[in-house]
Design brief:
178 residues, mainly alpha, Arc Repressor Mutant, subunit A, 2 domains, 9 helices, 74% helix, elongated
């Protein structure tokens, strides 16, 4: 029987079980790396470095995890903070990793031209709207979870997702069929 995240966290806290933390990393590394790859555009090396920083910070601060949200939500928050700190240092604007997004789509059901247009349209969104849309629409977080990750009010997340999706629809409609 597979242990839950809560059970693994209890083992890390109780026994400083590094194998339990390793299992948490194994479970969540692809989603954390995916989010960071989207945020860093196509800089895979930077995204991987930030993911490593995320898990180091998570291990060092696991006692601060209160269990009020899912462990993955807490990790996304740490990852987003790592990204913001790095972006502040670099002072660059970032977008979505097109290759990662496309790899997750079923090529049988999604038109490659539409996929390309969607990626381009996403990159035109302001960072706050793009990030909210990615967290809620692609990564499957609830609005409440995204608000915790971004450390902004729930209403702001809802507004950013709504505005972002509306802008995407308008942009794609204006570009017309391929």
């Amino acid at each position: 029987m597979e242990l839950s995240d809560a059970d693994l966290i209890a083992r890390v806290l109780g026994d400083d079980d590094q194998h339990a933390f390793g299992e948490l990393v194994r479970r969540h590394q692809s989603s954390v790396r995916g989010l960071l790859r989207q945020l860093t555009r196509t800089d895979i090396a930077l995204a991987d470095d930030l993911a490593q920083d995320t898990f180091i910070r998570a291990y060092k601060n696991i006692r601060s995890f209160r269990g009020e949200a899912r462990f993955s939500t807490w990790l996304y928050r740490i990852a987003y903070n790592c990204f913001r700190e790095d972006a502040r240092r670099r002072k660059e604007l970032v977008g979505v990793d097109e290759e990662r997004w496309q790899a997750e789509q079923d090529p049988q059901t999604v038109d490659p031209g539409l996929r390309h247009d969607l990626m381009h349209a996403l990159n035109l969104l302001p960072l706050h709207e793009r990030t909210a849309v990615m967290l809620c629409c692609q990564n499957g977080l609830s609005h409440d979870e995204a608000a915790r990750v971004l450390d902004i009010p729930l209403g702001t997340v809802k507004t950013n997702v709504l505005r972002g999706r509306e802008k995407l629809k308008r942009t794609l409609a204006a570009w017309g069929p391929n």
